Automatic annotation (TrEMBL):
Annotated organism of origin: Pedobacter caeni
Domain HTH hxlR-type: 15-118
GO MF, any single term: DNA binding
InterPro entries, per database record: HTH_HxlR, WH-like_DNA-bd_sf, WH_DNA-bd_sf
This protein's name: Transcriptional regulator, HxlR family
Length: 125
């Protein structure tokens, strides 16, 4: 972790603004599954069953809800093809790709956290 010396503390207004921004972001991408769905769709477009198979543990009901929420917030598009039976393909929008750095940072932090937990468990043994 990088320690910054001699940097002034943020003002109350800056803290309030940052908190509001973080809460707004969390409101849109909250929950266990939204980032996983976005990550899968950034890699390639997929059908519902492909997503469900790729995201271990998600129920069809929850996946359907997450897809609707993500579509409403312009993170994904849903394309319906008039075949028999109807084909529906989900894909990431350009807007969802703006989360690339956020997902990268979360991934890096998750890896560090996993290592920290492993070290803690070794010390307890």
């Amino acid at each position: 972790m990088k320690i910054i010396v001699n940097e002034s503390l943020p003002t109350n207004e800056e803290c309030a603004g940052s908190l509001k921004n973080v809460l707004d972001a969390l409101y849109v991408i909250n929950g266990k599954w939204k980032l996983a769905v976005i990550l899968c769709l950034v890699q390639s477009s997929k059908r519902f069953n492909e997503l469900q198979n790729e995201i271990t543990g998600i129920s069809s009901k929850v996946l359907a809800k997450e897809l609707k929420d993500l579509e409403l917030n312009d993170f994904i598009t849903r394309k319906v093809y008039p075949t028999s039976p109807v084909s529906i393909i989900y894909e990431a929008t350009e807007y969802s790709k703006t989360l690339k750095n956020v997902i990268g940072e979360l991934s890096a932090w998750g890896e560090q956290h996993r290592e920290k937990i492993k070290q803690s468990m070794r010390k307890q043994s």
